[in-house]
Amino acid sequence: MDDRGAGEWNTIYLLVLAIIAAILMFGVIKPMFSKGASYVSGGGP
What we know:
The chain is mainly α. It has one helix spanning about 5-40.
C-alpha cells in the first residue's frame, strides 16, 4: 500500500472518529442542558 492510500485511510478514520465523538458529545451534553434548563426554570431543588 502506498503512502497516498494510507493517508486517505487515515483521513477516513479521523472523520469517522470525529463523527462518533460529536454524536457522543451531543448525547451527553443535550440531556445535561435540558436538565439544567428545567433546574433553572424550576427554581432549584
